[in-house]
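Key result, reporting period 2: structure in, sequence out.
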């Protein structure tokens, strides 16, 4: 959590600085490159993160094979993603354009991401501080480089190199900390084909889920580039950044309550359902407060931090922020999925939401540009994280819980006033 707050603060400061310095068009180029790389990076996800952590903990005698196999699989996946990105750039971008080189430079970071496997070791041994140190140090150095680039008046591609530097440094720092803290040498890691088949057979659903989640977050900016242009991407990226900054709140709340929910499910199902209802109500109330606040202050907020060039981001933000109503409650729903062992339903809803997002973007962006992308984001989250729950018998009770949570801001004051009158 400390790392999250720290990185959000530094990241927001750097985003404001770069957006002001580069302007909407050039900032849009960087946002477009980052979004494209995020989409192709799903090839290296492999659905292995939580699975590998579990395997390290439960099968101590196979740790060398687990880690060695995972890093090879991830390298192959990220390499495939990088090759696909290069092919995309060759087909759809002019060879000498800034967009083409931004994609290649930022995309090169994919080849260094397999080192993130070391983080699985730290998670399995409850040593998250080492990962936090590595990533925070890399972020600070990269941020300092970006500030220096602004001071000297560097061109836009230098900031793409700065992003690449951050990923490379994070990997190097992880490797250094692992070498000095782990009893298992990096050189003892080894690949095993049978282990690879076993891991992949278990991780494919998580991989697809990660792909769909990335589509949610990134496809809007990519499609804005296709239909409108990079300047609109820059304007939209500012609104999305201000909106998505809040998304860590429900994750933190639900993570702290998750172990208690697991115990209640086993010992007291009725109280478990009551607590789950309370969590939905809490998350919806916070999301509603955030959405109302950000809608009212969107214009002065954008003007204060990003300047007059980005005022068009304000009405986009006022729409985009309302997706938080469903994103916040989805955080609790995702834990319900784990408790109830309903991973396949999670995959189906995420896939349906991703398809809805793409379809709505195709329909709305050509006519409404960034406003259309924000509306598509809001509606696709509503479909995937709320309305779709009604059509599955097992999840229908959660649909009614969410519905009750939406009525809570009216229901509780009504009960209070009714009691006063009585």
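The corresponding designed sequence is given below.
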């Amino acid at each position: 959590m400390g790392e999250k707050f720290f990185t959000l603060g530094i990241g927001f400061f750097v985003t404001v600085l770069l957006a002001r310095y580069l302007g909407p068009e050039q900032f849009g180029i960087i946002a477009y490159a980052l979004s494209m790389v995020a989409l192709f990076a799903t090839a290296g996800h492999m659905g292995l993160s939580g699975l590998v952590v579990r395997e390290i903990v439960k099968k101590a005698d196979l740790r060398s094979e687990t880690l060695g196999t995972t890093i090879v699989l991830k390298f192959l996946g990220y390499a495939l993603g990088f090759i696909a990105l290069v092919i995309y750039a060759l087909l759809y971008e002019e060879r000498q354009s800034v967009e083409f080189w931004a994609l290649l430079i930022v995309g090169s970071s994919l080849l260094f991401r397999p080192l993130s496997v070391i983080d699985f070791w730290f998670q399995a041994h409850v040593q998250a501080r080492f990962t936090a140190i590595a990533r925070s140090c890399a972020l600070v150095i990269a941020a300092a480089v970006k500030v220096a680039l602004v001071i000297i008046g560097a061109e836009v591609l230098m900031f793409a190199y700065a992003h690449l530097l951050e990923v490379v440094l994070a990997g190097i720092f992880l490797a250094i900390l692992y070498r000095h803290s782990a009893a298992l040498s990096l050189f003892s890691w080894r690949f095993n084909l049978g282990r690879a088949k076993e891991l992949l057979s278990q991780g494919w659903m998580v991989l697809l889920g990660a792909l769909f989640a990335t589509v949610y977050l990134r496809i809007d900016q990519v499609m804005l580039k296709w239909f409108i242009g990079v300047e609109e991407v820059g304007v939209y990226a500012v609104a999305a950044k201000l909106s998505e900054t809040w998304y860590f709140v429900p994750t933190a709340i639900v993570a702290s309550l998750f172990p208690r929910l697991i115990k209640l499910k086993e010992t007291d199902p009725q109280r478990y359902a009551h607590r789950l209802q309370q969590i939905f109500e809490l998350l919806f109330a916070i999301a509603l407060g955030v959405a109302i606040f950000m809608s009212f202050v969107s214009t002065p907020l954008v003007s204060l931090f990003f300047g007059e060039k980005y005022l068009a981001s304000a009405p986009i933000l006022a729409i985009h922020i309302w997706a938080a109503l469903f994103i916040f409650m989805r955080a609790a729903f995702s834990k319900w999925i784990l408790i109830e062992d309903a991973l396949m339903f999670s995959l189906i809803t995420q896939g349906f939401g991703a398809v809805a997002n793409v379809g709505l973007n195709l329909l709305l962006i050509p006519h409404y540009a960034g406003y259309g992308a924000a509306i598509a984001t809001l509606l696709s989250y509503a479909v995937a994280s709320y309305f779709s729950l009604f059509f599955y018998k097992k999840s229908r009770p959660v649909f009614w819980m969410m519905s009750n949570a939406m009525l809570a801001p009216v229901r509780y004051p009504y009960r209070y006033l009714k009691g006063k009158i009585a």
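The chain is about 85% helix and 0% strand. The first helix runs from residue 2 to 41. This case is discussed further under Risks and Mitigation.
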